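Q: My labmate handed me this sequence with no annotations at all. I'd like to see what the chain might look like in three dimensions before we decide whether it's worth expressing. Could you predict it?
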Amino acid sequence: MRARLSVALLTAGGDAEIRKTVSCLRAQTIVGELELLIGAPRADDVRLCGDAVAAFAACRLLSVGDLQRTGDARAALFRAATGPVVVTAEDHCYPDRDWAESLVAAHVGPWTGVGPLVLNANPLTATSWADLLLGFGSFLARPTAVDSGSAPWHNTAYKREAVMACDAELPRLLGVEGLLQKELLRRGQRLRLEPRARVYHLNMSRWASFLAVQHHGARSYAAERARGWNALRRLTYVSAWPLIAGLRFGKGLRDARRVRAKRALPRAVPVVLGVGALVAGFGEALGYAFGAGRSAECKGRLEFGREALLWPGDRKALVGPAGAR
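A: Here is what I predict for the chain of 325 residues:
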């Protein structure tokens, strides 16, 4: 049977790092219609046993080389996929059982990209909530499906044919996925948020890792966004960094109010949001002024082994799909 959905999963640390995500994928209601593509620096780094992957329509291990810049690796997995729809997955993001079925059903419609509703897998700390709100705030606590100008990075399912039309630019666009989405929208494609597809996302809760991911993520995004800009346009955005930080903070507060209508949040969330927004705003300014520097590589390292970047108390209060292990 040909796979209806290809799942592209990267790992820098071998099987232990992706075991929980693979367990959630194996529990999917349509697991027999999923193709699992696992990319690692070397395919020999992953030794999942037959029982762990036997239920999938297909499972392939690919050597993708250095993972410090993840765009090249994700592009390799997209090119290798055989399903008509491809979704990226993460070692720190755990889908509900009907996640895949909901994404496939939504793709019957005219949308090129369909993103899931995002939930907090480590909801104990204000730092975790601030990280989630700054990165995924638009995709929290949405009760109904809506057309959207964006979808969750690294967790959105795309019609493969439409993405492959960007082939020459694919590594750059998948490295900073917001740029891929902007390009698809520019081409007249549509994005959708589908709340029946739900994922639990593990967020930074140590201060050092939280601040690092805000800085390096914003700087690498700005550097890619500003490719081809003239000096005057770059200078305009650099000088506007306090406004950029303020916009990030304001959006985070609005998203927090929407979440708070459904559940309590730690009282320090606004303070941590403010600090994170300032760090991200300044990181954007550096990206516009001087390029990415080492931020793309630093951000790439922060993508993997997320549990080591959690406050120890968070590890005792993780939540996720039933049966995930």
